[in-house]
Amino acid sequence: MVTPADVYRMSSVTQRSKHLDRWFAVGESAAGDSRTAGAEAAADALVDGDARLLVVFASDSYDHAELLRGIREQASDVPLVGCSTAGEIATSGPGDARVVVSAIGGEGFSVTTAAAGGASGGLREAGAEAARCLEAVAERSSTVLLLLTDGLAGDQAEIVRGAYSVAGAGVPLVGGCAGDDLKMEATYQFHGDRVLTDAVVAAAVSSEGPLGIGVRHGWRTVGEPMPVTGAQGNVVGELDGEPALDAYLARLDAPVEAQADSGAFARFAQTHPLGLASRTGEPHVRFIGGADFERRSLTCIAEVPQGNLAWLMEGDASSVLGATDGACSDALDSLGGHAPLGVVAFDCIARRSVLGDSGIEAEIGQVTERAGGAPVAGFYTYGEIARTHGVSGFHNQTLVLLALG
Question: Could you read off the pLDDT of 282-300 as tens digits, one per residue?
Answer without folding.
Answer: 788 888 988 999 999 999 8
